[in-house]
Amino acid sequence: MIKITLALVAMVLMSLFAFIARVTASDSLGLVYKGAITENAKDKVNIHPVAYTLNGLKIAANVYTPAGYDANKKYPAIVVAHPNGGVKEQVAGLYAQRLAEAGYITIAADASYQGASEGIPRNVDKPYFRTQDIHGMVDFIGSYPGVASDRIGAFGVCGGGGYTLNAAKSDKRFKAVATLSMFNTGQVRRNGYMNTLMDTIQVRLKEAAEARLKELAGEIVYSGEVDFDALTDESVSKIPTDLYREGMIYYGKTHRSPNSTFRYTTSSLMELMTWDATDNIELINAPLLMIAGEKADSLYMTEEAFQKALGTKDKELFKIPGATHIQTYYVPEYVDQAVSKLKVFFDRLL
Known about the structure:
Layout: H1 6-25, E1 46-54, E2 57-65, E3 75-81, H2 91-101, E4 105-109, H3 127-141, E5 147-157, H4 159-170, E6 174-180, H5 185-191, H6 201-216, E7 222-223, H7 233-237, H8 242-254, E8 264-265, H9 269-272, E9 288-293, H10 299-308, E10 315-320, H11 332-349
Parallel strand pairs: 3-4, 3-5, 5-6, 6-9, 9-10
Antiparallel strand pairs: 1-2, 2-4, 7-8
């Protein structure tokens, strides 16, 4: 039984006030990607902020409808899962908008416990919840006016790509599955990025278990804390990997959002480190498209997952020439190539 303490009550109240502040801030669109919608207009792609309940939590999402949208017609739909630490106003929103421009109804939602969605403590990042978030987007968009519920595709970016693979193993409502710059969160939290922390696995598992004990007493311990305000060009330049170096610039400077954060509860590692996006991946029997930057140092994760995805014969690995991981989020020439590939893929299947 959880012991109720004054510290726990204070933590809950502070989290509640923070959530209210986030919801208030989300009254404005808050989109931070280039070419974002600033207002809805007739005969153009429109954005519709929505909320729905998933496992007792209110989920904040944006639905994009194509130009000339008519609720009496039937459109294919695509759910878009955001990266770890990301929110719907960043790269997920960009691709959701671009796919809506291609004629799809799309949805990008903030993960449970993250962004403008409910959940206490904040920034829990567990595979179960992230996978449920994707199932929940299908639940909601499948009954959205104008959606053809038998023509729904899944698309995930970075960590959202790994969780999309996991959701697609069992969710046969997806007729087509695609990922961009897929990040296997469980593998990285367990082994370290590019398998650099293999010798500290047991130590970090022990720290995660200790953090869980502290949560019972009302103390929330976080990993991955980054003070974006303290970032300097010099400190960023010293980061050795492209993903994390460019990620600091993208999330901390050029595409910063108040709801976006790298932090996650340390106790989440108990689940993350025992999970892998490629476990039972052969259960995916829908057509699969995996896109990644040719120069991304994260490419190994996409290649590993693609090789293990033996449950579908209709699969393709597309490498964007010259692109790194983060560059696929915003650089126009790379985004255009990814969208073009996605359009051909989803048009054929949806």
